[in-house]
Amino acid sequence: MGIQGDREGWKRYDTRDSPFLELKNPFTTGELVKTILMFPLLIVRTLLIVLALLVLAIMSFIAGLGWPLEEPMPAWRRNIVTASANCAGFVLMMLGFRLRVRGWENFAKAKELGVIGVFNHTAWVDAVALMYLFAPSGVSKESNAHLPLVGTCIRSFQNIYVSRSSIELAKRREGVPSVAEKIARRARDRRFPMLVMAPEGTCGDGRCILRFRTGAFVPGVPVLPICFRYNKRRINPAWTIINEGWHYVRMMSQISNALEVTVLPPYVPSEEERASPALYAQNVQELFCKTLGIPAIDQSQEEFSALVKLGVKVTWDGRRVIGPPGIVVDAGFVDLTPAMRKHE
């Protein structure tokens, strides 16, 4: 599926088979009728979601009030955080998601080991499900901490925030911990909640596993594979290159949305894997592919960002790939090289 992440492949990137451009679930007449009928209920459910997020934000604010979030929370504060996660469960219900979890007993084993949770990243719904099931910490873009309402909701979950400026600062100044060092320290400190990461680094369409980055595997600690499988028969909930508002309306207009979560046994790395994070990442990626029955492809954030920079997107009805004049040529192929970041 797709192309290899090399310069020759970038020159003829096939948009028709891209994990970042959803063309397999077009908008139909039947869906139009359903959207019209469901729209009044959509408004009510959206208001209830906002109410649930307000409650979550208040509880999160109280849990973290006056406490340095770089330090482990005392039990009473952490109990508030855990209780607030039920608001995320209510949000899932209002989004119409029926949640089925397999392998829940493996989470209990993971807590004894001290692990990093790793999951295949498909949609923003992933974060809501993870919050509800595990009340974990995450590794997130620094900008997410400043989002209205959402930033307050996730404050007490003690995320590690990452930005390009913080990465550059760590490179320039001696003594400033890198992201990898922060992850390693947090993973080894069991006083904090489980840290979860998406090794793919961005969302794909859920029909493949994107290239795994090594950040979650550098510390050499066991990982807990958490596999997400969405029902994509009517609409794919995947957060690909889309109009977010229209995608939300389509998703909320479904009678139901299904999400199956499979929690695999903790994966304890061998000495060889501890010495080679790339090998560790590759072996865990293969485990995801085997569990979900989907292939791995050599694409990641670089290709996604290049498509966005070039203005390549899918029409509102999900039937065609479009872009500025001269960008998408030769029956769906596009040259990504002008927008690709330089690789060392």
From TrEMBL:
Record CDD domains: LPLAT_LPCAT1-like (cd07991)
Top-level taxon: Eukaryota
Residue ranges crossing the lipid bilayer per the database entry: 42-67, 79-101, 113-135
Domain called Phospholipid/glycerol acyltransferase: residue spans: 115-231
InterPro entries membership: LPCAT1-like (IPR045252), Plipid/glycerol_acylTrfase (IPR002123)
Annotated compartments: Membrane
Sequence similarity: Belongs to the 1-acyl-sn-glycerol-3-phosphate acyltransferase family.
Name this polypeptide is given: G6002 protein
Species this protein is from: Coccomyxa viridis
